[in-house]
Design a protein that fits this description.
Blueprint lengths: L1 H9 L1 H12 L3 E12 H7 L4 E10 L3 E8 H12 L3 H10 L4 H24 L5 E11 L1 H6 L1 H4 L4 E11 L2 E11 L14 E2 L25 E5 L3 H13 L3 E5 L5 H8 L3 E5 L5 H13 L6 E5 L4 H9 L4 E4 L4 H11 L1
Parallel strand pairs: 8-9, 8-10, 10-11, 11-12
Antiparallel strand pairs: 1-5, 1-7, 2-3, 2-4, 3-6, 5-6
Helix pairs in contact: 2-6, 2-11, 4-5, 4-6, 6-11, 9-13, 10-11
Length: 336
């Protein structure tokens, strides 16, 4: 199981970096452990209402993976992303409500965790898997155990568990639950729970596969997303004049995949309206973009509160539209 443990523990560090950019606060995964767990043990150790994320696994093997987090913590994460007041989050937790905007916002956090885990399994795991988030729902463990035949069809699972510290607060446990056979593991081979060092204490063998990914690109790349054709054309002219490559993406594209192929040095996101719906696109872009890459969100009629919210959602800078060519050029030069 050591190779699988390495993959599971390795994904926590890039996930930490992306969550820090998204939440605007320090994030730490603490007390990470991996080990076998039977279906009975899984339900006995999972107390209280949970939020379950269904994850489809394809590749060398196929199956369903699950992510579990206490409902109250999932509500806190969703509320943090929406910048809800603490008293409003507490009220939602008290009502045990997990739906609407809170559920959608937590889904963005789940996307980050699943995406980072998938990247490791696709590139480094002995069993190559591609993971994709399918849905998020509320789970009551006692009821789920009674009707677990369809949802948890396997008898043995291999589980990564960790607590999540955001700022001064601790949440969790977060559990990534894999059917043992999906990972090519058998409990009779190794049944005792193992514990690995936290991210940052990895051995040297884990670094080799990623060396190729860090090769220096031949030229700079700027990605532009949106439907503002007039301004996007100006950006393209400026970028090409500076000798950089220009990549246009649709808002409906799989941005994680697009950015993995192009690895943009900078991204311009054009939104038609500066409101919560428009800025929600910034969350999706930032979750797919390397945390060190600047994201410029462009749109009309910015207010102070919306600028603050854009920063919280991961924007490096804003651009007020309509904007003349000189203003856009200064932005390009600043971030390239």
């Amino acid at each position: 199981t050591s190779a699988i443990d390495e993959v599971l523990l390795d994904f926590l560090d890039p996930a930490r970096q992306e969550l820090e950019s998204l939440l605007g606060d320090s994030v730490e995964f603490s007390e990470p452990q991996t080990g076998f767990r039977s279906k009975k043990e899984l339900f006995s150790k999972t107390r209280g209402k949970q939020v379950l994320t269904r994850i489809k696994a394809d590749g060398e093997n196929q199956g369903m993976v699950f992510m579990l987090l206490p409902l109250k913590d999932a509500v806190h994460f969703g509320g943090m992303l929406l910048m809800m007041p603490a008293e409003s989050i507490a009220q939602v937790v008290k009502q045990a409500k997990f739906d609407g905007d809170v559920a959608d916002s937590f889904g963005e956090i789940a996307n980050i965790l699943v995406g980072c885990c998938s990247n490791r399994f696709e590139s480094e795991a002995p069993v190559r898997l591609k993971l994709k988030k399918e849905g998020v729902e509320t789970l009551v463990p006692a009821r789920a155990e009674e009707n677990s035949g369809d949802l948890f069809a396997s008898e043995d699972y291999y589980v990564l568990t960790s607590r999540i510290r955001v700022g001064e607060n601790s949440y969790g446990p977060l559990e990534m639950v894999f059917p043992a056979e999906l990972l090519g593991l058998a409990r009779e081979v190794e049944s005792r729970q193992s514990q690995k060092p936290a991210p940052g204490q990895k051995n040297d063998t884990a670094a080799a596969p990623s060396d190729a990914k860090e090769e220096k690109k031949n030229s700079r790349v700027v990605s532009v997303i949106g439907a503002d054709q007039e301004h996007m054309k100006i950006v393209e002219e400026i970028i090409r004049a500076q000798g950089a490559d220009f990549a246009r993406c649709s808002q409906d594209d799989d941005l994680r995949e697009a950015f993995a192929q192009k690895d943009p040095d900078c991204v311009f996101l054009f939104i038609n309206r500066v409101n919560d719906q428009g800025l929600s696109r910034a969350i999706k872009v930032r979750s797919a973009l390397h945390d060190s890459r600047p994201l410029i969100v462009a749109g009309p009629e910015w207010t102070r509160s919306m600028v603050i919210k854009a920063r919280k959602y991961g924007a490096t800078d804003i651009l007020v539209t309509p904007a003349d060519k000189d203003v856009i050029q200064r932005k390009c030069e600043k971030y390239l």
